[in-house]
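Fold this complex.
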Amino acid sequence: MPTDESDASTDGAAAGDDSGKARDISLDEFQPYGTLAVTGAYFILLLVLYALLYFVEFATHAPHIIE
Amino acid sequence: MTFVDHYPKAARIVKANLIVAFVALGIGGFFGLIQALHRTDVFRGFVSSVQYYDVLTGHGVLLALVFTTFFITGLYQWGVTRTMEREPESSAFSWTWFAMMGVGTTMTATAILGGLVPGSGLSAAVLYTFYPPLQAHPLFYIGAALLVVGSWLAGADWFWTYRKWRADNPDARIPLQTYMVIFTWLMWYLCSLGLALEVVVLLIPWSLGFVEKIDPLLPRTLFWYFGHAVVYFWLLPAYFVWYSILPKLSGGRLFSDPLARVVFIFFLLLSTPIGYHHQYADPGITLVYKMWALIMTLVILLPSLMTAFTVISSMEHGARQRGGSGYFAWMGALPWGQPAFVGCALAGIMFAAGGFSGMINASLNIDMLVHNTAWIPGHFHLTVGTAVALTFMAITYWLLPQLTGKALKFKNLALAQPYTWFIGMTLMSNALHRQGLAGVPRRVAEPQYAGIDYEVPFGTMAEMDWQVAIGGTILFVSMVLFLVVIGGTWWSGAPATDVDDVIPPALSGPEHSPKILDNLKLWMGVAVALVLIAYTLPLAEMVMDGLFSPGAFPAPM
Amino acid sequence: MHVHRFEKLWIGLSLLLIAAFIGIVLFGFTVMNLKVPGVETGETVDPATVLSEGPFAKPGVRKISDDHYEVYMLAQQFIFRPGSTRPLTLPADTKITFHMTSPDVMHGFEVPGSGLNSTVIPGQVATFTTRFPEAKSYGIICHQYCGSAHHNMQGEIKVVPPSEFDESNLISQ
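Structure:
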């Protein structure tokens, strides 16, 4: 489970230092909950936007090619 | 000791390709500024509305064909050399393909730019798609053919290196970067064949006057046989960066090497046979093929959606290794102060938006709402214009020290550059999308028509025009920042003391995946079969009633 | 091959998304009658003679039946015929079939903000049928680059109530 501790922000966000590794995480330890959350949100956004664009923006703007 | 020390010959070739790419970027980018100000009627003092089309041709060709191709050959030469651990087999051969590409580019660029020089006798205001019967000077077409053939030789160079490596490593899995190069180029050979046929068999003889009339549908169909796959020719190198380097930049490791291979196989198979989705509004293409294109194009969403998961999870791995936590807060732990990381990450975010507008374009009937409107450039400035271009710019910050041995100069400008690109593109692209929904056409010098009032979904035309103009100006400034950083580093950068060019291995490596993924012949065979299914009958029909018939007269541009 | 269960879930969701999009498009195509040009296969014509022989020699509106009219329209550098020099007048709420071709270069036909959209290709006949729901004026824009005055190429469709539609200017078959 992702930890509830506040984001232990490492150094370097402003200074551009990229050696901010705190620890190693192995393949077995790594559970991409964050990715599931982000992609899940994207999935819902895509469905909603597509339906809106198709049924509202497109379908209601007659005339259309009917044949 | 970094790349330039281990592989000096390859480094020279990579650098030469990058220089051409950046010169094209500078000129093409400047043209984009002119267009953004002209079509919105903010400033029309650079060129006349007739010359606008010469500028538009230059913008499309220099950015979408020259900047892209040369950056890709440079990037891929770097990737092949470092993973095969071999210098190019023959410097003479390598410089030959570069020279061929360069000569071709010079010819085509001369024809285009000649259109802006009164009395030059040269002109090619045919736009990047050069549909006949609009006709450019023969130099335009001959140059394009040389650029494409030169790129074929580049691939042959890398296959040569790969064969030598394979002889020394008979049982090894193909290293991921070389794998991605090979699959990109297999796809490129397959799709650029259509363009080569169009240009060499039809357009060059026609532009030289050996035949007078030409059937517009056939070259247009051959162009789009090529023209959809070419966007993957641009996108796959961005994926190359996101899969093989971005995890390291994020402080982590690639989540899955095998899935990256699967994704590239998908693109080899599906990129070319879906070209008809650019012809949904065309007469002369029967509904069956439009339906085939609809289904296959929506299926090709899958490898990109898979890429989203693998790349984001690799970034998440880096973020958590850096101490990040939570469902979304982990993103704050990423290195947002690192220019190379920032550019790639922002490029990926914009790609998510561009992917959506692409899904709309792919969807057959709703495409009728947006086809050839401003929605289309709104879409592709997010995809090739950001996902690809911004990734290329960002990764240059990371590559340049390896290629020159010099430390990156003007780091503050380098960090500001991707953020400014993101802001400029947000403004410009959202306005173009909304203008497109109202029906504002693309590729038009003056989209203001007397007596035609656009019905805008929300907002006003004036506000959208200003967003395009201001966004385009910010993009131009961002591009200048990039060129200043690169130029400054190249010419006056201090020697780099500690170049971090190490990429850690993937979390899940190729050793855990079936060997069939590396079976080049199998996947190329399937790709060819799908192309034959998609294109044989329609092309045969177009050819059988006469190669140049029904023929239209040339319209010199 | 190690595929994390979350990624398997995501692949499943992606396939669902793709299926949903295909379903929506096919539903729109068949049930809502949202189509594209060229559903009926057009024959080819000769751009060199299209202005003097065949139906395009007399561009304009023809009556097929009380509820169905057809328009033979040319797109050429840089006008629509009919449509540019005088508005093309059509009855509302009636089936209208457009046949379009070009004697010179490729053009486009777009009624902005609607689903009427077609490429016009010399040698090909673009065919599509529509129904204008209300009486009003529609613009026509050429949205396929056709030369130096491309940005000046526009037209107008004036849709009138069927009772007001003047049949005296129709082209006889």
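Helices of chain C lie at 5-30.
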